[in-house]
Write a structure and sequence with these properties.
95 residues; mainly alpha
C-alpha cells in the first residue's frame, strides 16, 4: 500500500473534551442583547448597505452614460474611409 492511501480508522480523539460544534449550536443569538440598540445605527439611514454601496463609486453612472453616448456617436457619425473599399484594402491605390 502506498503511504498516500493510509487512512485513519476513525476521527481523532478529543483530548480536551471540548466540542466546538456543540458550543456553536448552544451559543446562538442571545434573547436580550444589551448592545443591540447601540449597534442599530450602523445599519440604518445613511449607513445602510445600499447607501454605503451607492457611495463607493462616485461618478460611475455619469461616466457610463457618457461612454455609451460617445460609442453611439462614433458608430453613427464618424466614418472610417480607410477600410471597406472594393480595391482589396492595402493595394496600389493605398497611400
Amino acid at each position: 500500500m502506498h503511504f498516500t492511501q493510509i487512512r485513519r480508522a476513525g476521527p481523532r480523539p478529543n483530548l480536551t473534551g471540548f466540542d466546538p460544534k456543540a458550543y456553536a449550536s448552544a451559543a446562538g443569538t442571545p434573547a436580550n442583547d444589551p448592545w443591540a440598540k447601540r449597534e442599530a445605527w450602523r445599519y440604518t439611514g445613511q449607513f445602510s448597505r445600499w447607501n454605503r454601496f451607492k457611495g463607493s463609486f462616485p461618478g460611475l453612472g455619469i461616466a457610463t452614460v457618457a461612454f455609451a453616448a460617445y460609442c453611439g456617436y462614433e458608430y453613427l457619425f464618424m466614418n472610417d474611409d480607410h477600410h471597406g473599399h472594393a480595391e482589396g484594402g492595402h493595394g496600389e491605390g493605398h497611400h
